[in-house]
Amino acid sequence: MPWIQLRLSADEETAEKYSDWLMACGAQAVTFIDSKDTPIYEPLPGDEQIYWSDTVVMGLYDASHDMDKVIAYLQRIHPDKAAMQYKLEQLEDKDWEREWMDNFHPMQFGQRLWICPSWREVPDPQAVNVMLDPGLAFGTGTHPTTALCLTWLDSLDLSNKTVVDFGCGSGILSLAALKLGAKEVIGIDIDPQALQASKANAERNNVADRLSLYLPANQPSIKADVVVANILAGPLRELAPVIMEFVAQGGQLALSGILEEQAQALQQLYGQWCKMNPIVIQDEWALLSGYKKQ
Fold first, then answer.
1. Is residue 105 part of a domain?
2. Are 102 and 269 in contact (CB under 8 A)?
3. Tell me: the pLDDT tens digits for 3-32?
4. Which of 130, 180, 230, 276 is the most exposed place for a label (fewest CB within 10 A)?
C-alpha cells in the first residue's frame, strides 16, 4: 500500500501537541526525530517523554488520504499559521533498510541509465551510471514515482539542455539528467537536508560543478528546457503556476508523486499550459508529461 508522510517542525514544548493533531487528522502512526535523525516512537499512555529542542514530528498516512484537508485543519488550529513549517512526501519503500547492503542492487531505467550503490560492481561500464547509496533524503529509484521519472529522463535527448528538478530530494533526478548530457541542472527543495544530500551525491558523481541548489525563497527566475517535479498531487496542484513559470516555450515537463486516481484531474489542470502525453501508470502511481504550448 502506498503511503504519505507529513513532517512538522516542532520543539520540546510543541511536539506532543503536534502529535495529537496528526493523530486527530487520521495518522496511522507518529514518529519523532531530532536533527540527527535519532528516532523516538510514540510513547505509551502515561510514559514520560522528553523531546529535543528541534524536533520533527512525522505522521504516516494512507496515500489516498485527503492531505489538503489535513493541512487546512492544521493551519486553522495552529496559533501562528505563517510560522507552521511542514513537508509532504511519498514514503520510500523501507523494506531494503533491514538488510540494505544485501538487497539494494543496481537498477536499470530505460535503455541507458543505471542507478548503482557504491558497494556493487557496475553492470555495464559503458552505460550511464549514477552512483547513489540509500540516505536521508527521498529518492533511490526504488519508489515507482522515481522510477517513472528516471525512465522518462532516459527517453530524452538532454544534450546541452537546462533542467529544473523541482523537489530534488536526494538529487537522483538531477544526477541522472546531468549524466545523460544536460548542460546544467537547478535543484529546488524546501528541505535543507535534501539540498545537502543532493550536493554530496553530485560531488560523488563528479557533476557538482553543473548542479545549482536552492531553497524556494532563493530560487532563480529561469526558463528551462526540461522541468521534472516528483512531489505529490496536492503541491503539484497548488504550485502549478510556479512550476509552469520554469518551463520554456516548447519545453518538456514531467510530473509524478501522483496516485492513479488523482492523475486525470492534474492532467486537465496542466493541460491549460501543455500538450499532455498519455498518462503512464506503475504500481498505483502515475507520471504526467507534455510540452509547453507555443
1. no
2. no
3. 888 988 887 778 888 888 888 888 888 887
4. 276
Helix axes 172-179, 192-204, angle to 10 degrees: 30
For 291, half-sphere exposure in the C-beta direction (CA atoms, 13 angstrom radius) is 5
- Assigned C-alpha cell, 13: 514544548
**Whether residue 241 sits in one domain with residue 177:** yes
Q: Calculate the dihedral angle through the C-alpha atoms of 229, 233, 59, 29, rounding to the nearest 10 degrees.
A: -120
Q: Which of 79, 57, 49, 78 lies closest to 9, judged by CA?
A: 57
**Looking at the structure, do residues 213 and 72 belong to the same domain, yes or no?**
no
- Overall size of the chain counted in residues: 294
Angle at 216 between CA 211 and CA 3, to 5 degrees: 90
Neighbours of 201 (CB within 10 A): 25
Q: Where residue 264 sits, what CATH number does that domain have?
A: 3.40.50.150
Q: Are residues 167 and 68 in the same domain?
A: no
Query: CA 115, CA 108: separation in Å to the nearest integer?
Result: 7
Residue with cell 517523554: 49
Alpha-carbon gap, residue 90 to 40, rounded angstroms:
21
User: 241-257 b/e with 16+ CB inside 10 Å = b?
Assistant: eebbebbbeebbbbbbb
> What total number of domains does the chain contain?
2
Q: Is residue 101 part of a domain?
A: no
Question: Rounded distance, CA 208 to CA 79, Å?
Answer: 41
Spatial distance between the Cα atoms of 107 and 266, rounded to a whole number of angstroms = 29
Produce one character per residue of 185-200: b if its CB has 16 or more CB atoms within 10 Å, e if not.
bbbbbbbeebbbbbeb
User: What CATH number does residue 9 fall under?
Assistant: 3.30.70.120
- Are residues 183 and 68 both part of a single domain? no
Which three cell numbers mark 101? 547492503
> What pTM was estimated for this model as a whole?
0.71
